[in-house]
Amino acid sequence: MIFVIYACTFGIFDFLRLDRWMRNKIGNWRGVELLTDKDYTIMDRNKNPKYIAKKYRISSMIHIVLFILGQTIFWSLGTDSWEEMKAYLTDLSWVEQGDFTQSPYPNKTLFSIGMLWGIVFVVDLIYSWSYTLFPSKR
């Protein structure tokens, strides 16, 4: 399900990039120009470090919003009030426990999804912002 969601959202751009790469390679082999000027413009833009950093900043902001929204929904199913959620946010000892009964999640499935999503979120955040903090040379 996650792969299908990815393929229908951000994955479309990866398929378009793969298509451009394949048309470039096949065109070179056959001695035919298969790419348009627009394709070359897009390929050049995708090599620009400032553009790449901006793209990753935007995607990380979208991920932050979705993560907060999703976790709020998960936690609201397992807690009774905002005060209880705040208590879980201020005391993160439940993360070390590894047991959903000590967490704000209502069941083991949502606990596992929430923990996995948290790890992916942190890795994605570090990766995305590395392009801004440590831009490559063009």
How is this structure best described in words?
With 138 residues, the chain is an all-alpha fold. Helices cover 77% and strands 0% of the residues. The protein has seven helices and no strands. It has helices spanning 2-8, 11-30, 37-45, 49-78, 82-90, 93-97, 108-133. Helix 4 (49-78) runs antiparallel to helix 7. The longest helix has 30 residues, at 49-78. It starts with a helix and ends in a 5-residue tail after the last helix. The relative contact order is 0.11. The mean pLDDT is 92.
Outline the low-pLDDT stretches: none
Structural class, please? mainly alpha
The portion of residues forming beta strands comes to under 5%
Distance between the first and last residues' Cα:
37 Å
- The average pLDDT value, as a whole number, equals 92
Helix content percent band: over 70%
From the alpha carbons, calculate the radius of gyration and give it in angstroms: 21 Å
Number of strands: 0
Order of helices and strands: HHHHHHH
Given the structure, what is the number of helices?
7
Q: Oligomerization state of this entry? A: single chain
